[in-house]
Amino acid sequence: MKTALFGGTFDPPHNGHLALCLYARELAGIERLIVSVSKNPFKGPSDASDDDRKAMAGLLTGEINAAGRFAETSGWELRQSGPSYTIDLLRHVEQRYPDDELTLLVGEDSYRQMPQWKSAPEIPKHCTIAVFGRSGGESVGTSADTPSFPAQHYDFDMPVSATEIRRLVAADHSITHLVPPSIAAYIASRGLYRA
Ligand code: ATP
């Protein structure tokens, strides 16, 4: 089976994540998707708690599956001590689904950071890397920064980020155009990201 991993801090999940996952199913032929909630060592502490991020990732998974069930949420990275690393997640998923062909889904900003990831040269030995364009990214970098990892690049243009959503909520602005309704309702009910 063609299984994809999609890791993120999901603080909160948004329409960019949702569209990327649905796009991957259609264009990359992904049959199973694991949405993994991470503790990203490149980011500061998340605003929302691990439990809230996992709950929102679960809602994202529900939205993805509304178009046909193929996604599951994983809290495995959250249960590891210290920061989480993609290479460890890949090894874990390989053990769980030994016969599957793995694809790692990343936005372009994450792909450009990949040379700094733990055991980076090992990663392409475990999976195909699928990179989704990210316009309006904060750290897009120059062509000199482009990693040499083999990757499949997909045209993708959803200018939305979790940073922007947190900023809008703190400023008491609407986010309903940027997140699925279930996640907007969760953020409001838990009072997340308010200043
Ligand atoms: P933040 O603004 O807090 O940095 P984020 O919007 O980048 O968060 P993450 O949960 O860190 O969200 O992202 C998880 C994965 O999704 C990363 O690989 C990231 O590159 C990718 N991604 C997030 N938003 C987009 C987008 N709009 N277009 C393409 N890829 C995206």
Question: What layout of secondary structure does this protein have?
Answer:
Elements: E1 2-8, H1 15-27, E2 32-37, H2 50-65, E3 71-74, H3 76-79, H4 86-96, E4 101-107, H5 108-113, H6 123-126, E5 128-132, E6 152-154, H7 162-170, H8 181-190
Helix pairs in contact: 1-2
Describe the structure.
The protein is α/β, with parallel strands linked by helices and 195 residues long. The chain has one domain (2-159): HUPs (Rossmann fold, 3-Layer(aba) Sandwich), CATH 3.40.50.620. 37% of the residues lie in helices and 16% in strands. The protein has eight helices and six strands, in the order βαβαβααβααββαα. The protein has helices at residues 15-27, 50-65, 76-79, 86-96, 108-113, 123-126, 162-170, 181-190, and strands at 2-8, 32-37, 71-74, 101-107, 128-132, 152-154. Strands 3-2-1-4-5-6 form a six-stranded parallel beta sheet, with helices on both faces. Helix 2 links the parallel strand 2 (32-37) and strand 3. Helix 1 (15-27) packs across helix 2. It starts with a strand and ends in a 5-residue tail after the last helix. 38% of the residues are buried. Mean pLDDT is 91; it is low at 137-144. Adenosine-5'-triphosphate is lined by residues 8-11, 16-17, 20, 106-107, 109-110, 132, 134, 156, 158, 160-163.
